[in-house]
């Protein structure tokens, strides 16, 4: 990590640092908030694995996302040893943001799992190879047995 960047001393710091770095257009700094093998469920309908892949997705996201990003209302953090589950109530009403962070040996925190949106939208400008017309699992109208709010049978 670059020593000049602020590091998260609590799991809750990660959301604030994400907003600061996103508003600065710092994709590399965003990627440094994740462990090297972290998993990012973004764009919706896709899984991005590893810090380098996360950096590339962040670059595309920053090129298309409206700014400024806002710090969102934090929900209570759940701790279990060196793991923490954090979440925020999204200002853009995308359903919820949840992350799992892990305490590092030096006491700082990094994300290991990040699901920034739960609403199944596809952002072709960020991940053009994912198109709703070829992903029936994210188009309930194609598979009528999938209904919003329906539980697994």
CATH class: Alpha Beta
Instruction: Determine the CATH topology.
Output: Nuclear Transport Factor 2, Chain: A
Task: Label the overall shape.
Answer: globular
Provide the low-confidence segments as ranges: 130-153
The helix/strand series, from N terminus to C terminus, equals HHEEHEEEEE
Which second-level CATH architecture applies? Roll
Summarize model confidence as the mean pLDDT: 81
Quick one: how many beta strands? 7
Major sheet details: 7 strands, mixed
Number of domains: 1
Helical residue percent? 10-25%
Q: Helix- and strand-based class?
A: alpha+beta
The DSSP helix count reads 3
Rg calc: 16 Å
Features:
153 residues; alpha+beta; Nuclear Transport Factor 2, Chain: A; 7-stranded mixed beta sheet; 3 helices
Description:
- It is a single chain.
- This protein is α+β, with helices and mostly antiparallel strands.
- It has one domain (13-122): Nuclear Transport Factor 2, Chain: A.
- It is 20% helix and 23% strand.
- It is built from 3 helices and 7 strands; from the N terminus they run ααββαβββββ.
- Strands 1, 2, 3, 4, 5, 6 and 7 form a 7-stranded mixed sheet that branches.
- The longest helix has 14 residues, at 51-64.
């Amino acid at each position: 990590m670059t020593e000049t960047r602020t590091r998260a001393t609590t799991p809750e710091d990660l959301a604030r640092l994400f907003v600061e770095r996103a508003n600065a257009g710092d994709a590399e700094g965003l990627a440094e908030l994740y462990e090297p093998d972290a998993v990012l469920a973004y764009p919706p309908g896709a899984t991005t694995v590893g810090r380098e892949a996360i950096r590339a997705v962040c670059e595309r996201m920053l090129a298309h996302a409206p700014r400024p990003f806002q710090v969102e209302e934090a929900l209570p953090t759940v701790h279990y040893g060196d793991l923490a589950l954090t979440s925020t109530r999204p200002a853009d009403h995308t359903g919820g943001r949840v992350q799992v962070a892990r305490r590092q040996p030096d006491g700082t925190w990094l994300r290991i799992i990040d699901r920034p949106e739960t609403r199944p939208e596809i952002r072709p400008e960020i991940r053009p190879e994912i198109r709703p017309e070829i992903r029936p699992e994210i188009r309930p109208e194609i598979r009528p047995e999938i209904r919003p709010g329906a539980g697994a049978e």
